User: Fold this.
Amino acid sequence: MAEINFRRFLTKRELRELVSQILQGNNPLAITDLEGAIISGDPDALKLERSLVHYEDQDLGWVYGEPSAANTVKAILLHLFAQEAEKRRLGAEVLSKYKEVNLLYRLSEQIGNMHNRAAICELLLLEANKLVNVSDCAILLFNQTENQLEAIATQGAMFNPGDFLSISEGIEGNIFQSGKGEVINEVTNDPRFASCIHPLYALICVPLKTRSKTIGIASFARREPVMFTAEDLQLINALASQGAYAIENANLYQDQLKDAVNRIEMDKGRKMQQDFLPLHLIQPTNWQVASKFKPAREVAGDFYDTFNLPSGGIGIVIADVCDKGVGSALFMALFRSLIRVFAQQTYLSGQTFPLPGLLSSLGKPVMLNLDHVNALRAVSLTNDYVADTHSNLNMFATLFLGILDPKTGILSYINGGHESLVVITDGKIKSRLKSTGPAVGMMPRMNFQIQQTYLEVGDILFGYTDGVTEAKNAQGKFFGEKHLLTFLDAVPNSAEALLDRIEAELNTYIGDAVQFDDITMIALQRLVE
Assistant:
């Protein structure tokens, strides 16, 4: 095969727009010739890794960019180049035959910028009729989901658009599996022939093949007695080969567009979800509040929050919605919004006063604050709304909601099935805030008990989701609660430093392993009275 100029090929009018669209995206990409001169793309990509585009015995040029994106572009370029190479081979073989050369030229001009595979298939049938004059014809492409051949374009009575044919059925199924075209005169004598509405006499059936695979078949038939020739088969094979690459490129183009749209939509979802997380944590006077959030995917089911209450109290939330991906992210937004709205409604208000004869776990009187009770009703209200309205989706969240009085250090809370929060003082675990009710949203009218603790000067309250303890290393072993609690004994006596140390330990532990679940942590420390 004569060498093809890479630069001239990629800057052809019919390819220029397609190449430009391929290179668009969030990651910088560039295509250069062998000397490194840019043909198309972003010059900033030249700072990234490069990958050689090599076809058969010819080095063509380089693709610069992040490896995954660059490899995708490289694969598309090779498909385009293979198409060009195939056209040249065919042109050299049949140069003496004006009819075939004219066919390839017309087809190349027409399908060069076509990205709709159905339209390409219709055009192939139209051109085939000009070559061999058939009464019935169809193009069937392999449908991976159904594992069958699907009729995309048809004329006559052999197939209807949307019909499916088993890859082990009939002449078409056999041609698809063998990958070799055939001329079959006197079709009804062939044992592979399946019955048709109208009797057929002669048939040409060829595979639609790219260099790597067979993507479908093209079948052309006559009802009248006729003898198709080897030359007819050669013409149809030429058309099918040209069409196969056009269809494959259309598929790649559509996949690229879908991926681009999905990336854009996912990025929008990620940005919207970030808007639901607090941009800045509330920092009450004499307190320090810190957080860490690392989603496993573009969107997450974990969330944390801090918000002011009309009474002067501070709401503190950490939660983990079941499942992963977009569904859990949508419910994360729902849970977060409901908790905020319900907690800030005013039903009860009043002063804080002790309940006679009752002592907390620290030996201090239990202080009843009606504003805290009012705010904590948000858990029950959220639970009932989700369970009543969305029970068919089986979505729920483990959730901790604490209401802090920053002046006294009293923390009233409900732990709805969440990981037990830890109170640390002087580098030692002082207490655990265990579950006081079930996960939120599982069943309506569940009982959520309000508990209370005191955070004294120097105390740190540390909360986390199960993405911390269930983080896996390269050997598939969990980080584990025991590891976490042991590590807490040696952390610096600061909320922010605590999370920094745990994050560093997690990163070291996970190493090159894939992050399995969202990692979320929150901590607050009382600095002075």
